[in-house]
Amino acid sequence: MNQWQETRERLRAFALGLPEAYEDFPWGETVVKVSKKVFVFLGMEEESEKWKPGFSVKLRESNGHALNLPGAAPTGYGLGKAGWVTIPYSDETADTDLLCEWVEESYRIVAPKRLSAKREAPQP
């Protein structure tokens, strides 16, 4: 398994651990949703001519920081205007703990308030 695939799998596992998150496969791509809304696009399992390894999340607070990563850009199809950022999986990508924080930030933006509150509640 390549380094980028390990990072992708860690982000996938983290995202699926969030309350009521589930995986879906529109357009042959892996996404994780909550309440029928995508909060992270994980991309394909294998690199192709049309797809380079990377993921997309919706960010408000961390948008500028994420866009400063090498190769990061506003997500296409008009999603960038709504705060979505596409970040390539690469050796220069931030550490996976930070990337997981961004996945969680995206989740909190997209998830219903009741689920975000569950995430904030102290765990026994």
What does this structure look like?
The protein has 124 residues and is α+β, with helices and mostly antiparallel strands. Helices cover 34% and strands 22% of the residues. It has a 6-stranded antiparallel β-sheet. Helix 1 (3-16) runs parallel beside helix 3 (96-110).
Q: How is the largest sheet built, in terms of strand order?
A: 1-2-3-4-6-5
Quaternary class: single chain
Give a quick account of the main beta sheet: strands, pairing sense, barrel closure.
Answer: 6 strands, antiparallel
Q: Low-confidence segments, ≥5 residues, pLDDT <50?
A: none
Can you count the beta strands? 6
User: pLDDT average, as an integer?
Assistant: 86
Helix percentage range: 25-40%
Radius of gyration: 14 Å
Brief digest:
The protein has 124 residues and is α+β, with helices and mostly antiparallel strands.
Topology (SSEs and partners):
Elements: H1 3-16, E1 22-24, E2 30-34, E3 37-43, E4 54-58, H2 63-67, E5 73-74, E6 84-88, H3 96-110, H4 113-120
Antiparallel strand pairs: 1-2, 2-3, 3-4, 4-6, 5-6
